[in-house]
Task: inverse folding
């Protein structure tokens, strides 16, 4: 990690915080869905096969965090695409810095934004839920899996932006966020999903990320689920981080 | 040593279209080189190759002694670049952008901070430096862009149409600053579609058309190549331009007329004046409203070399 990476991360973070129209939807939409789901489906915890949870709010919190992180990934992609459109990207490419620093700076910023997102939802949990059941240790797990996954989702956004080169295409994937999320076990336990969604959810890495975040929140004490959450988040980051760097070289390889 | 050197530099895009078709450049240190041409002539493509944003598909080029294709990193650390559109993040302040640029150029600590303050002051943005760039005027953005390009004291500065869209006051302010940089020893590669800009600023001018350099030299040298002055005449209503050209045939050769003028004649004899033209037309019974003696300009050079005028040629294909 170079000084340029940290400088670019600081700049990306600062600009994101100054663009409330980007940041607000990442927090507001998942919070609204959380409120709607909790209000209308709270009796779902009585269904046979539903795991023991302190409240439906606590169960849904991981889904809200996952959704927020995915939206953060789209936001990062749009920001990178706008830099390409406005020519700011050329300023970075014309500077004598390692090419990977451009992607690393964005990813570093995304991990900080993910921490802000998690803080928001943990705050909601303290107000409307029952808090993180597994205490400080659990809280650290929630933060770490979320930050790794959020960085991975940002890598997806960066890859799309560098491939497409324009913000409207990246923005076009917005509805896919919901499809991917609803085809996972983020909102309901896998055992309660019907075919073929249960099969898809089993292969959807987002299921494992959401379950990993959820486990310490609801106090499941399930180490395997947490490890799978880490593995999925790291896998997403590793695969799409590499693809983002490759997309960057594809875009500027001609330079 | 040449600050910028190119031999047979080419750039072809998909479909084999050559935006730049075999350019040769040899620009010594401390010179302002004006690269003049209409939109679509290949100016920006040439600059993007020289600043390592685009790889040449043919030929070679060195900038500040380093090959743009094989050693782009060394080139980047020695050049300053202000591209056509001032690529500034509107959500950042002038000071923040300066600090970021200094870091990207590998500068640290108090030296970097002092340099940023000095440059912000030099381009007259001290009062606005803590404001977000989104609120800057076009001239302020251009000045900030120039300051950003200078943060690491580059030996070669590329300015791609730096005054396009600026009001005259901002344009003159930028010209002053560019002249000052030349006086300090910086080599400046300036692309422009403004004849006056090239005439006022450049030590030498290269005229590019359809991806090739069609003329190169000092502004005065190029103008003297074109030769004699010409007269431009606005005829009275109902007077035939063809008749006027026929009457004036002994004085010189007809040229395409511009603006409000109906007839333009390149004079054979430099000593021929307005009075001669008026007398000839009067003898032929052709009345006129206005006559003007025009000395050769870079536009005339452009016309001579390419067959059409530069001004008004902006409807050419985009680069």
Result:
């Amino acid at each position: 990690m170079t000084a340029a990476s940290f400088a670019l991360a600081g700049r990306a973070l600062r600009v994101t915080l100054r663009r409330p129209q980007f940041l607000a939807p990442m927090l507001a939409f998942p919070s609204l869905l959380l409120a709607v789901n909790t209000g209308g489906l709270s009796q779902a915890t009585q269904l046979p096969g539903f795991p023991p949870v302190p409240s439906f709010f606590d169960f849904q919190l991981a889904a809200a965090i996952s959704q927020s992180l995915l939206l953060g990934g789209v936001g990062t992609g749009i920001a990178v695409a706008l830099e390409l459109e406005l020519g700011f990207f050329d300023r970075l490419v014309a500077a004598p810095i390692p090419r990977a620093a451009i992607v690393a700076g964005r990813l570093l910023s995304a991990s900080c934004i993910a921490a802000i997102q998690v803080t928001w939802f943990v705050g909601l949990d303290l107000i409307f839920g029952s808090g993180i059941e597994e205490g400080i240790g659990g809280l650290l797990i929630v933060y770490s899996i979320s930050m790794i996954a959020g960085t991975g989702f940002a890598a997806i956004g960066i890859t799309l932006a560098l491939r497409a080169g324009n913000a409207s295409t990246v923005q076009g994937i917005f509805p896919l966020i919901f499809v991917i999320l609803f085809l996972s076990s983020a909102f309901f336990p896998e055992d309660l999903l019907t075919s073929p969604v249960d099969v898809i959810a089993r292969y959807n890495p987002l299921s494992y990320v959401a379950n990993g975040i959820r486990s310490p929140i609801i106090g499941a004490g399930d180490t395997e689920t947490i490890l799978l959450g880490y593995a999925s988040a790291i896998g997403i980051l590793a695969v799409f981080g590499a693809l983002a760097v490759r997309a960057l070289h594809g875009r500027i390889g001609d330079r | 040593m040449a600050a910028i050197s190119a031999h047979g530099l080419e750039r072809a895009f998909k479909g084999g279209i050559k935006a730049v078709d075999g350019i040769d450049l040899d620009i010594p240190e401390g010179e302002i080189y004006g690269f003049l041409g209409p939109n679509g002539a290949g100016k920006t493509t040439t600059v993007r190759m020289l600043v390592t944003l685009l790889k040449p598909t043919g030929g070679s080029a060195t900038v500040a002694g380093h090959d743009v294709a094989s050693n782009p990193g060394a080139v980047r650390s020695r050049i300053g670049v202000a591209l056509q559109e001032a690529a500034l993040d509107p959500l950042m302040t002038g000071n923040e952008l300066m600090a970021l640029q200094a870091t990207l150029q590998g500068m640290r600590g108090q030296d970097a901070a002092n340099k940023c303050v000095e440059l912000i002051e030099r381009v007259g943005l001290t009062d606005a430096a803590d404001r977000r760039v989104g609120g800057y005027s076009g001239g302020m953005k251009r000045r900030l862009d120039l300051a950003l390009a200078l943060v690491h004291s580059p030996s070669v500065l590329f300015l791609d149409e730096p005054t396009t869209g600026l009001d005259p006051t901002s344009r003159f302010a930028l010209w002053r600053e560019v002249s000052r940089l030349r006086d300090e020893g910086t080599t400046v590669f300036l692309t422009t579609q403004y004849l006056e800009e090239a005439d006022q600023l450049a030590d030498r001018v290269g005229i590019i058309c359809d991806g090739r350099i069609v003329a190169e030299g000092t502004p005065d040298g190029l103008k003297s190549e074109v030769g004699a002055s010409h007269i431009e005449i606005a005829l009275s209503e109902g007077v035939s331009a063809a008749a006027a050209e026929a009457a004036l045939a002994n004085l010189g050769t007809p040229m395409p007329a511009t603006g409000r003028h109906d007839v333009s004649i390149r004079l054979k004899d430099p000593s021929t004046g307005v009075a001669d033209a008026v007398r000839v037309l009067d003898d032929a019974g052709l009345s006129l409203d206005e006559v003007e003696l025009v000395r050769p300009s870079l536009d005339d050079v452009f016309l001579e070399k390419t067959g059409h005028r530069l001004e008004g040629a902006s409807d050419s294909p985009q680069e």
